Write the structure tokens for this entry.
Amino acid sequence: MKIEIQFLDFEPLSRDKINTLRSSLKRAFEILKIPERGFTIVFTSDAKIREYNRFFLNRDYPTNVLAFKSDDRSKYLGEIIISVERAEEESKVYNLSFEAYLLALTVHGLLHLLGYDHERGLYSPWLMLKNEIDLIRGIFPDEELIKFLQRREFMPAKLAVNVDHVATVREARKTYYPDPVHAAVLAELGGADGIVVHLRLDRRHINERDVKIIREITKTKLILEMANTPELIKFAKEIRPYQVTLVPERVEEITTEGGLELEGRVEEIKKAVKELNRVGIKVSLFLNPEEKVLELAKKTGAQIVELHTGKYAEAKGEEEVIEELARLERASHLARDLGFIVHAGHGLNYENIGPVAAIPEVEEFSIGHSIIGRSIMVGMKEAVREMKELILRARG
Ligand code: PXP
């Protein structure tokens, strides 16, 4: 197997480091039980990787690793580009050995060349991370690195766009426009990874017709937010969205005020989760970012938790913002350790998204009001594209 190593715009790494890397990568093929194939690793600077990122992927910022597959991968897999500058900086921030971190980035790139893709498909992120951890265990068992990988995926977070407020404008005049169905299509064209609708008990914006049509036309996934009532559970089972997010609901509230109250309600929620799971619908619980709540949530069998970011969004002054952010970070770690897929949402906008989007455990953000508000000015596609870029950028 020929692993070609090039240095572009950067000082060569020591012979020892290169030899360790080469032998570790050879071992990776043995562990994956696939024939060895050649590929190139280019070590470079932040400035150069940014050029690549901009030129090939239209992302105007530096990143740690990029991978470009060749057309005929039966012979030559392609190129992995790594910014050594970024690798050094990040290894310090994460308190990891530089060698270990560099290897992790290379393995990540190699898996991309082999066809794994954490940015596409429903299960590939988990599969990719699992392979990454298994490989690192087999070739360079650095405990700190393994713990780090278990906590963090090199995965851009997803954006699910809530189109409720397009229907709010329609309902203001009880007419037939603007149509949230059109908004859903445009949001997907702008890069949304999912469409969210909240079928409220008073049907003040989204109605059954909207949910049914959006379910039919979405190319990504439909997330139905709803209260846990027999009528809505029956409706969800008929419609079969990809996911149901259970939320608390008071008819007189302006928007969802807090997370689900689980104290004394575990059995009731568990029953709903079971019923929805039985027909293939994943269930998310909208929860306040608190330890006790998350531990109770574990007993319900739900797969996903959406952490309520409302308090963070409303926090006044730097101190309060930092406090709320730390609360979200702690809750995200705990939720992930408990085995949940972690989502977050509520009150997030173009100004406050950055710090929460940088929490690595959060895999998806559910955002509505700010995107619909901005779409009035710049159009739906552009409003979604801008939010997605802010989320991606926060991950580095
Ligand atoms: N997540 C949940 C569970 C919600 O109920 C809402 C509001 O409908 C959102 C996210 C989106 O909140 P916002 O409209 O403030 O972005």
